[in-house]
Amino acid sequence: MKRSEWAYLVCSLIVTIALPGCASVRSHQAGNPPTYSDDGLVYRLPKRGINVGVAFEEGKSPVLTVTEGTSFADAAGPIYVARIGRNGVGQTDAEINVTEQGLLSATTAKYTSQIDDFIKALAADAASIATSDDGETTEEEPQRCPTTGTANLTAYMGKAGRFQLDPSGERTVELQVALNCNVKVSLQRAGWRPPPGDSGAVPVPTKVAGYFYRVNMPYVVRAELEGVVKEAVVMLPDESPTYFIELPRALFASTDNTTTFTDGVLTKHKQQTDSELIAALKIPADLLRAYVSALGSFFEAFKSTELKEAQSDTQKVLNELQRQKLEACIIALREDPTGESSDALCAGIAMPSGS
């Protein structure tokens, strides 16, 4: 066998052994419209609203609170599909959780509001606000804000309508509490600028091992009502590029990955992968031989004459290598029977009897 043919055989065997190594979860962007290849667990990337709480108490200035709202799926964005892969030489144990909103989560997602206690007890909408009216209000006099009551208002970024916030800070929207009682709200990016266009960390999503996700970006929200101003920093994923977290592929090594998402936003990733070389050395020789033997049986099932011949040639090469090592040992013993070179060349060689 020529040296090039021997190298080709060795490379082919290595590639064949490496092919079963895989990651447990693969993701890809679904087509539009979806096709048969898009079967799997569907998830989307997140967006989030902004809550503005208002509380009135007679004789006091209004109290404003600004918090992050409930996350929801980006219906205008791409759809992603996750699949739990198969591994021919290992055991796959994977669990993917998706919230009712279609967002990735490692555990059951629960939204915990950060609104003050008096805001948590709000009625469903501003219609429940109690107003004070002594009947002396004239038609020309605009109605002022309520003297008592609470309201919970929501604004969005990148959502059509009068509640749409401009992240450059150049536009102010007015959220109505009552007639002639509006909270002015503005939003501005805090110390960062998004990439131009729709470019992201994953320009062409393909079937790859891992997950697509967004990250939270900081914004400053300003709310104003009757001279009272409230500013707060909120974290929103709306303008985040699409990122990808890759899961490792392994054959001999064990992998342990814990990836936690909070409503589709990556919050934790723990990855532990043994060295492939160290892991292979841990496997007993008998087990490795059994694996290679099983691999040979796999090819035997396909009646590959070419492979049988290659295996036969491989044995010839091994026999020739052993013969050359034996000849080199004999020559070294003749020239220097007690030298270090002869000891090194003859190490591990079973000498023929009578030599």
List the defining traits of the structure above.
17 strands; four-stranded mixed β-sheet; signal; 32% strand; 23% helix; five-stranded antiparallel β-sheet; Lipoprotein; alpha+beta; disordered N terminus; 2 domains; 355 residues; 6 helices
Give a brief outline of the structure.
With 355 residues, the chain is of the alpha+beta class. It has helices spanning 3-18, 117-120, 276-282, 285-300, 305-335, 340-346, and strands at residues 25-29, 41-43, 46-56, 63-73, 80-84, 97-98, 104-105, 149-157, 164-165, 168-178, 181-189, 208-213, 217-225, 228-236, 243-246, 255-262, 265-273. A five-stranded antiparallel beta sheet has the order 2-5-1-12-15, with no helix packed on it. A four-stranded mixed beta sheet has the order 4-3-8-9, with no helix packed on it. It has a four-stranded antiparallel beta sheet with strand order 10-11-13-14, with no helix packed on it.
Total DSSP E strands:
17
Per DSSP, what share of the residues sits in E-state strands of 2 or more residues? Answer: 25-35%
Largest sheet: 5 strands, antiparallel
Gross morphology:
elongated
Q: Order the strands across the largest sheet as they lie in space.
A: 2-5-1-12-15
Mean pLDDT: 64
- Helix and strand content put the structural class at alpha+beta
Return Rg in Å.
Answer: 34 Å
Instruction: Report the span from N to C terminus.
Output: 30 Å
Task: Give the low-pLDDT segments.
Answer: 1-23, 86-93, 107-143, 197-205, 250-254, 273-283
Series of secondary-structure elements, N-terminal to C-terminal: HEEEEEEEHEEEEEEEEEEHHHH
Number of domains: 2
What helical percentage do the residues reach? 10-25%
What count of helical segments does DSSP give? 6
